[in-house]
Amino acid sequence: MKVEGEINNFILVWSIAVVSLCYCHTIGKLIPKGTSRLLALLPIIILFLFLPLRLYSIHLGGPTCFFLGWLSIFKLLLFAFDSGPLSTNPSLSLRHFIPIACLPIKIQQNPLSQIGNKENPLSQNGNKENPSLHFFKKGRKSPLNYATKALILAAFVPIYENRGNVHPKLILLLYSFHVYIGLEIAMALVAAGARALLGVELEPQFDEPYLSTSLQDFWGRRWNLMVSNILRPTVYNPVLTRSSAVVGRKWAPIPAMLTTFFVSGVMHELIFYYLGREKPTGELMWFFSFHGVCLAIEVAIKKALKGSKWWLPPIVSRPLTVVFVLSTGVRWFLPSLVWCKADEKARIESIAFVEFLTNVYEALKYVCLHLFYFISAAKHNLG
């Protein structure tokens, strides 16, 4: 794979995406919400499913398939019915509409308006677990936080280079930390650029998942919150409403959670297909479905013990939660990275990118050197 060709494809894909979102912004002004607007947006939704297929790299194709192939499509589906982050009053300007539609960002709203939302499936104990209030109090992470995590990633490199002498399970465990840190840093960089462009405060995308005290805490408050924020209105809330009429409001969150994790599994299988272009193995579906079942059991137990003083202290629940997530991830999630050769592709791409930068540097040095000689000769002739 040539770096220049992949970069050209990357520019082409995102240029098409931006033009398409300009069309979507216009549609929102001309066509009322509902089926008519959905039909008008459907060609763009289908286009966004195919655009990531133009890219083959991990570093450029990976974020693109996540941003366009998942988040943007779900946001446009909500927008068709005048819901979600793209539907505001007053309407978003084009300058705000495009980045919010295609990037993993969410404008921070007044957290006080969110207090008391106890029906959030991925928050616990009512107000104490409200993500917006938590972020409002906590604020933005420091650059030192990200620098420390980047150094941790750098420390993994020597181990990867000697992977032949390391147990495969340990390598997969390192991959789990690598995925988390890499995602957080990459999404933080995107958010920093969007924050500067939009001039607004954004909600954090991660909140130290290794501090999770339960699966509910992990999936709802700490891990990849941009996904939680988009799955909640597109999948969880509609299923919750319909389930309430069947099983009652108390137990309606259970089928809503199971459906949400099922959809998440489907979308992860799609993303890994983009990366590997191979038939899905089903392990990702099993991972998310299993976690959905476990989370449903956890919520059911909490409902049954509501008012009870019997709770595991954080000193016990935190390591139990982290060990459970890591062990199931190593068993079912991380092998998919090896299956689609994401680790090997990332290594080859890194080497190719360094060579590309070296060639660019040599070309610039050559041009500057000859330009210097030309200017010197011109001054000499004029003199």
TrEMBL record:
Coiled-coil region: none
GO molecular function: O-acyltransferase activity
Cellular component terms (Gene Ontology): membrane
Annotated Pfam families: MBOAT_2
Transmembrane segments: 7-28, 34-53, 60-81, 172-194, 254-275
InterPro entries to which the protein is assigned, alphabetical: Wax_synthase, Wax_synthase_dom, Wax_synthase_Magnoliopsida
Keywords recorded for this protein, A-Z: Acyltransferase, Lipid metabolism, Membrane, Transferase, Transmembrane, Transmembrane helix
Provenance organism: Quillaja saponaria
Domain spans labelled Wax synthase: 203-288
Subcellular location: Membrane
Family in the record: Belongs to the wax synthase family.
A Gene Ontology biological process term: lipid metabolic process
Name of the protein this chain belongs to: Acyl-CoA--sterol O-acyltransferase 1
Membrane topology value: Multi-pass membrane protein
